[in-house]
Amino acid sequence: MLPAQLVDLDPPLLDEVMPAFDAYVFVTPEYNHSTSGALKNALDFLYAEWNNKSAGFVSYGVNGGTRAVEHLRLMMGELQIADVRAQVTLRLLTDFRPAAQQENAVDTMLDQVIAWGLALRPLRGPALGRG
Fold first, then answer.
1. Is 89 helix (H, G, I), strand (E, B) or coil?
2. How far is CA 6 from CA 3, 10, 22, 62, 107, in A?
3. What domains does the chain contain, in order, with CATH numbers?
4. Torsion-angle region of 129 (φ positive above 0: left; ψ -120 to 50: alpha; else: beta)
5. At what angle do helices 66-78 and 37-45 cross, to 10 degrees?
6. Which of 5, 15, 40, 122 has the most C-beta neighbours closer than 10 Å?
7. Which among 77, 87, 115 has a CA at the least distance from the CA of 25?
8. What is the pLDDT along the chain (131 residues), one digit of tens a residue?
């Protein structure tokens, strides 16, 4: 299945979908020293979808979006998401061109997200369509 952007999913208001993925990578801007309101709303809205999954972060902003990820990490525990340590930070003025450093950071973060996603699979169990 190809990755989808939140806008492509067009989630309905106050209605949760069946859990579909084992892990997620959240891409977020830093907006007023936090994540965007749209992402916060989506996290709240799809509460059950996130449970017992893993997540990694790619953030961007003037300082790499690190404060947005700090806030997201606090939310992850409440949503029962195992967030991985590695993250990718992109500084608006310097990092939006190919760089080996960013490729390594992406690879490390994705490896961790996949490993945790697979490790958490037994917690989701057959009741959620997982076996």
1. strand
2. 10, 7, 16, 23, 22
3. 20-123 (3.40.50.360)
4. left
5. 10
6. 40
7. 87
8. 455 676 777 766 555 555 578 999 999 999 999 999 999 999 998 888 899 999 999 999 999 999 999 999 999 999 999 999 999 999 988 877 767 778 899 999 999 999 999 999 999 876 544 43
Q: What is the DSSP letter of 126?
A: G
24-37 in b/e form (b: 16+ CB < 10 A) is: bbbbbbbbeebbee
Cα Rg of the chain (Å, integer): 15
Q: How far apart are CA 47 and CA 12, in angstroms?
A: 13
The residue type of 81 is I
Provide the 8-state DSSP code for 62. Answer: T
Q: Distance from first CA to last CA of the chain, Å, rounded?
A: 19
Task: Please give the structure tokens belonging to residue 91.
Answer: 């500084």
Q: Name the pTM for this structure.
A: 0.79
Determine contact, residues 30/61, Cβ cutoff 8 Å.
Answer: yes
Smallest CA-to-CA distance from 120 within 44, 43, 19 is with 19
Q: Which two tokens stand for residue 9?
A: 């999913």
